[in-house]
Amino acid sequence: MNKEPTVAGQAVYSKKVLSIYDFWVLGVSNNYFWKCPTRFISEQFSMLVSSNHLDVGVGSGYYLKNYLPQSTKRIALLDLNQNSLDTTSKAINHFQPEVYCGDVLEPLELNVDKFDSISVNYLLHCLPGNLIDKGITFQHLKEHLNDGGVLFGSTIFGKGTKLNFFAKKLMGVYNKKGIFSNNNDDLDSLLLSLNKHFTDVKVEVIGCVALFSGKKYNKCIKNK
Fold first, then answer.
1. Strand stretches in 47-144, DSSP E
2. How far apart are CA 144 and CA 77, in angstroms?
3. What residues are paired with 155 via a beta bridge?
4. Is the pLDDT of residue 157 over 80?
5. Each residue of 195-221: pLDDT tens digit?
6. Is the pLDDT of residue 30 over 70?
7. What gap in Å lies between CA 48 and CA 62, rounded to an integer?
């Protein structure tokens, strides 16, 4: 797979951009453009994160900094952007995070113990292709999830939701620059991709943001 579009989607996260990420993305954009206040994503994170967790597409590390339980035994970070990894690992240094640089559209050769939960917040809409193509991400991450474990996250739809004038303009700019690649991302495509890889799939759409989760099928239950 050509990695250029993947790199383009994460290249914007310079140290300067990361310093204003929480304000612009989680404060202004979520509230006024995408119409999904960050508290909804935070609540999902708090509810589904485990003490053996992998965070993918870490951004500024906002959810880890604010909602990671103190009882967490193991936390790992996976991103293609070294600035994001550096910023987040420093912010949660007291948890001694494992840090991995990798592309979720490619097989992940982590060679580590599996996780009980994996989060992918605001990652999918930055990846190239449509949501069916991006579904390979679920396949790659599922390989590192324990049976019965949960994958959850959030993504911004570019199709099938109502956008106000400013949201349309901003999303158009982001897609043109390659920061987003979500013009054809919609609910049906997300459900199709999730149901292909997980059970107990749940999706809630707030504004133009989808909050989703799914569990890796427990083989022991199947054999009983």
1. 52-56, 74-79, 98-101, 115-121
2. 13
3. 210
4. yes
5. 999 999 999 999 999 999 999 987 654
6. yes
7. 16
Give pLDDT, residue 10.
Answer: 53
Q: Specify burial of residue 223 (Cβ count, 10 A radius: 0-12, 13-18, 19+).
A: exposed
State the Cα–Cα distance between residues 176 and 86, nearest whole angstrom: 28
- Domains delineated in the chain: 4-223 (3.40.50.150)
Helix (H) or strand (E) holding 59: none
* Dist. CA 123–CA 222, nearest whole Å: 31
- Percentage of the residues of the chain whose pLDDT score is greater than 70: 92
Structure tokens at 192: 């199709």
Range 74-99 burial, b when 16+ CB lie within 10 A, else e: bbbbbbbbebbbebbbebbeebebee
